[in-house]
Amino acid sequence: MPRPPVPRQSAHIVSALWPALAIAALSGRACIAQTLQSAQGAATTHKPAASKSPNVKSGVIATFDASGETLTLRTAAATPEVYVVTAKTHYNRSRRVASRTDFKPGDSVVLHFRRSRSDGALLVTELDDAASWNWISTVRKTTTAATVKEIAENTLSVTVGADNVPLEYTISDKTRWEKAGKEVDAAAFKPGDHVFVVPRSLPSGAIMARAVADSTAGAAEEKERLATSVHGVISSVDMAAHKVVLKTAAGDTRNLAFNEETELIVAGKSQPQSGLKAGLRVAARIRHEAGDEVTWRFTVETQRKPTVTRKKTPVPKGAAAPH
């Protein structure tokens, strides 16, 4: 059945109103989008950093029993889960050491847990607010600038940042100390000294100080010395003594030993050791034997040429696009 014609007067009215209607529709969409963006922003302001570990959960405390031994965490999962806090549980709030009583139902938290081998209970090793979790997660993985507060037999107490947040590292006889470019012991550092701490996260939740130095360069060198691989450029090769001098990416100079079993890999293929030459950029895989750094593989690296991105020339309005 043919559609009846629109009266000429109505058509003129619709034509006149169409621009205004279109603008109103677009404005409405913009307002909705802006509202959604604001809501999403507000929802993610205090969102904890995503963790790949299945032993890390974030949510809201639903209940915390009177004895303070169990808490129920409400997460995105359909069923809340029950966790057990113990005398070994670490608490952090507002980036400072806290206690069980600093948390209550309704608090948004992040917790790390392990499963008990005896009864399968979910034991909480750490309970934090999101701000503390994000901060501590960074401190556990990256070299941190700090001020020495106290050095005890097994601990290094420092303050971090302009607001002097207290932080404690575990130290041992394996902790490396460097000052003015030289290896020293802990006694060389005093309260008030500015240091850079290379960390390692421990299963207990504590943070080990792997190395402590008085400069960023020193910390980078110490971190590199602790690694099982090092990148740099060969300065010299002594085939008779089986020694290579390597200028590393961190600016250190390393004397690396090698033996008859050491591999030389070039373009994915094994090559004779005679191919070791000064000027080669390599990755050296090392192990420590009787105080020496013995290299078991050298891999020659090629420098990648930087990708050049061509800028597109804007086409003036009305002009035909180039073919």
N- and C-termini, Cα separation: 48 Å
CATH superfamily of the largest domain: Nucleic acid-binding proteins
- Biggest sheet details: 7 strands, mixed
Q: Over the alpha carbons, how many angstroms does the gyration radius reach?
A: 31 Å
Instruction: Count all strands and give the number.
Output: 19
Structural class: alpha+beta
Please provide the ordered H/E string of secondary-structure elements.
HEEEEEEHEEEEEEEHEEEEEE
The number of helical runs is 3
CATH architectural arrangement of the largest domain? Beta Barrel
- Whole-number mean pLDDT: 84
Helical content band: 10-25%
What topology, given as strand order, has the largest sheet? 9-8-7-12-13-10-11
Classify the fold: give the CATH topology of the largest domain. Answer: OB fold (Dihydrolipoamide Acetyltransferase, E2P)
Task: Please indicate the count of domains.
Answer: 3
- How does the overall form come out from the CA principal axes? extended
CATH class of the largest domain: Mainly Beta
Strand content: 35-45%
Low-confidence residue ranges: 6-45
